[in-house]
Amino acid sequence: MKWEVHEGEHGVVTLVLSLKMQVSISDEPETLYKRLSLLVKGHDKAVLDSYEYFAVLAAKELGISVEKVHKPPKKIERLTLLKSVHIYKKHRVQYEMRTHYMCLELKYLTSSTAAVYLEYVQRNLPEGVAMEVKKTKIEKIPEHIQEPVWDTLPQVEETEVKS
Amino acid sequence: MLFSHAPPRTEKMAVDQDWSSVYPTAAAFKPASVPLPIRMGYPVKRGVPPPKEGNLELIKIPNFLHLTPPAIKKHCAALKDFCTEWPSALDSDEKCEQHFPIEIETVDYVSAGTSIRNPKARVVTLRVKLSNLNLDDHAKKKLIKLVGDRYCKDTDMLTITTDRCPLRRQNYDYSIHLLTVLYHESWKTEMWESEKTEEDMEEYIWENSCSQKNALDTLLRIKASENVSNVTEEELLASEVVKNYRNSVIALKNEGETENNVSQYKESVKKLLNIQALP
């Protein structure tokens, strides 16, 4: 954190407190994500289109390979309600809620890259848009499943088993 | 007192200005700060959509003025230091599978509402191919029987979905525990497993089946009627025709009836009973 001189427009000079984030490297092994699937839901298709452009460009700039971008068909939920507060059953009013979807599939991310990308993309999620992130983590087989344990256990006596 | 309104800021903006300093973060649409002649809304009769000054539609819709391509590139350049590279040795799905056979799937939910929690977020799905586990023949068959519907024969994939615990970490630990228990139980052989009948078998085994008994019976009777010296069962079993018949019956039972299998069966039966083809 330190004070820096910043030349703005029209010759305005300001003093700005700059916070340069520190990169820390830890020793624990990274978890690997084979696939990261982002499903974005919203009511407005134009907003989702702009968001798709933003997310794809951000992935390319950070060096993440984009597997595919596809748009599942929209779902429309319709309600039919009575138009009036009291009686008039024959006069109704109909509302509908349209949900548009956009699915972005990314491949081969480490946990730090995934954390950085997801935080950036989720902080810039527009108002009224929801997101579901499906992470597929890959792991080695744990040590206790490598060999069956019955070979290494000491022989248990018959009487103990019966009681 | 009348104050003359200052001209909007757009008139003083240069064409090559730094746009990311005008809209550094997400902000509402300010018509005096955006130098674009945008019109939005339902047009007046025989007219055009309303202009941007005092236009509520433009303020309501979320705008991406703070995320122009140069701004995104600047952000990503600053964030690039925190990213790590994917190991170059794992560039295909098969290699990932060979070194890291277990796949854990978790879902995160982001939405606006009164609460940021989503109860569906605690579900954990564990997927593993049985060919990667250290199982012998009996253990594999027992595991498939124990697991039932969760095993898919076509892809050889075991899928365990857990959501009985309230936290995701607990569900993950529980799914690993289930896998461990299944693995060790399938290596055990209980006393009652020796009572496995023919209906329980997963695949057809020819040895000690009715087909073998019938074939040997028929051949022995043929040899007896021809008054040949007593041929033993082992010799019959070792002969080519019987082996052919055995292979074709196994193929029919295990793989179902295909053109190939049925014609193979026909040929082997003809050779077994020494029937010549009808003219």
Automatic annotation (TrEMBL), chain A:
Keywords attached to this entry: Mitochondrion, Ribonucleoprotein, Ribosomal protein
One GO term of the biological process aspect: translation
Main localization, broad class: mitochondrion
Keyword hit for Ribosomal protein: yes
SMART domains per UniProt: Ribosomal_S10 (SM01403)
InterPro entries registered for this protein in UniProt: Ribosomal_uS10, Ribosomal_uS10_dom, Ribosomal_uS10_dom_sf, Ribosomal_uS10m
Pfam families: Ribosomal_S10 (PF00338)
GO cellular component, one term: mitochondrial small ribosomal subunit
Subcellular localization(s) per the UniProt record: Mitochondrion
Small ribosomal subunit protein uS10 domain mapped to chain residues: 37-134
UniProt entry tagged with the keyword Protein biosynthesis: no
One of the record's GO molecular function terms: structural constituent of ribosome
Protein family according to the UniProt entry: Belongs to the universal ribosomal protein uS10 family.
Protein name: Small ribosomal subunit protein uS10m
Species in which this protein is naturally found: Buteo japonicus
Automatic annotation (TrEMBL), chain B:
Domain of life: Eukaryota
Domain Small ribosomal subunit protein mS35 mitochondrial conserved: 116-188
Pfam families named in the record: MRP-S28
GO CC terms in record: mitochondrial small ribosomal subunit
MF annotations from Gene Ontology: structural constituent of ribosome
Organismal lineage: Eukaryota, Metazoa, Chordata, Craniata, Vertebrata
InterPro entries named in the record: Ribosomal_mS35_mit (IPR019349), Ribosomal_mS35_mt (IPR039848)
Protein's UniProt name: Mitochondrial ribosomal protein S35
GO biological process terms, semicolon-separated: mitochondrial translation
